[in-house]
Design brief:
about 325 residues, alpha/beta, OB fold (Dihydrolipoamide Acetyltransferase, E2P), Rossmann fold, Ribonucleotide Reductase Protein R1, domain 1, 3 domains, six-stranded mixed β-sheet, five-stranded mixed β-barrel, about 25% strand, globular, binds guanosine-5'-diphosphate, binds magnesium ion, binds zinc ion
């Protein structure tokens, strides 16, 4: 195995340059546990912790290592080590974890996965199916710097999967959309087209949509625990509790993820330009440059709704996500 198999690239080589003569090693965080990490380095898998200095230097939680990060390691005996620094990320999928501290509302960036090249947004075609949630995921992915592919799983539980696929294609922009049935491994063949040595793909989606089943199907072994779906609400339980990078024998790295119940946006208003390019393109023809596409005269977006060229629920979703992002960015200041 080489560092390149794990995603090492010129981008990181450059970030590591100042450590070149330190005697320290580059390593990738492949699994996070409560108090330590597992990393892969040219000296094999190591169990590592980070120094107080790394914690002290971190401006916030977002500056601490997560699965997918490249870190600078000091090797210790017994396959152990210490993280001295975090290398700058090439991409990161984050959400906002709002909360209160001392009675004041606050925002916080939580990085879910670092240095991911592609994200499979997995959605079930059963009761989980929700276009608005897929839009939210697509917006988060465009903030992350990774590409997106939408997987609509459980075709066996849906009468007209092709119709759902066509619907999703209307909101997915340039991102490909695929149907699959994870229990039939041969249906997953198409996903291998996205795998290549050194490329990292993360699977995201609600709990119970079949992420772990897809991963096992592709790997051909029961690597990840599969959740039983409760009869009463059709929802899966959280059986995947940690994030982990899994290296495929023929190259490529896949990350399974636990489901996320809350998915608050972390990004800039500009991120909608990609996930809502249809609306933003229409907006270029609005009479007023600062048109909010609500009640303004000469609004090309409203006109598209009147003509049946745009769905009003999609516009409502756009407004909602845009408000969420502008609230977030006011608070960031
Ligand atoms: N009917 C059907 N069930 C599936 C399919 N894929 C996964 N499941 C089931 O959905 C449940 C949740 O799967 P799991 O992989 O644990 O979901 P995860 O929470 O996203 O990792 C399990 O009972 C799977 O057997 C599928 O294509 N069709
Ligand atoms: Mg799972
Ligand atoms: Zn307008």
């Amino acid at each position: 195995m080489t560092l390149e198999d794990w995603g090492w690239s010129p981008f990181f080589i450059e970030k590591f340059q100042s450590w070149e003569n330190s005697g320290y090693l580059p390593a990738r965080v492949i699994r996070g546990e409560k108090n330590y990490f597992r990393v892969w380095s040219l000296q094999g898998e190591l169990t590592v912790r980070f120094t107080g200095k790394v914690r002290h230097k971190a401006g916030g939680r977002a500056d601490l290592p997560v699965v997918g990060d490249w870190v600078v390691i000091e090797r210790q005996p017994n396959q152990r080590g210490i993280i001295h620094a975090l290398l700058e990320r090439k991409s990161s999928f984050s959400r906002n974890l709002p909360g209160t501290r001392k009675g004041k509302e606050r925002i916080e960036q939580q990085v879910i996965a670092a240095n991911v090249d592609l994200i499979f947004i997995v959605s079930g075609l059963d009761r989980d199916f929700n276009l608005r949630r897929i839009e939210r995921y697509l917006t988060l992915v465009s903030s992350s710097g990774a590409d997106a592919v939408v997987l609509l799983n459980k075709t066996d539980l849906c009468e007209n999967p092709e119709d759902s696929k066509a619907l999703v294609e209307t909101i997915a922009g340039n991102s490909p959309v695929h149907l699959c049935m994870a229990r039939h491994a041969e249906q997953l063949d198409i996903l291998f087209d996205y795998m290549q040595p050194g490329k990292t793909i993360a699977m995201l989606g609600s709990s119970g949509v079949g992420k772990s089943t897809i991963l096992n199907g592709m790997l051909g072994e029961e690597r990840q625990k599969i959740g039983a779906v409760s009869q009463s609400d059709g929802k899966g339980r959280h059986t995947t509790t940690h994030r982990e990078l899994i290296l495929f024998p023929n190259g490529g790295i896949l990350m399974d993820n636990p489901g996320m119940r809350e998915l608050h946006l972390w990004g800039d208003a500009d991120d909608l330009a990609e996930s809502f390019s249809d609306i933003e393109n229409l907006a270029a023809s609005c009479k007023f440059r600062n048109c909010r596409h609500k009640t303004e005269p000469g609004c090309a977006v409203i006109k598209a709704i009147e003509n049946g060229n745009l769905n009003s629920e999609r516009l409502a979703s756009y407004h909602k996500l845009k408000d969420e992002l502008s609230n977030l960015n006011q608070r960031k200041k």
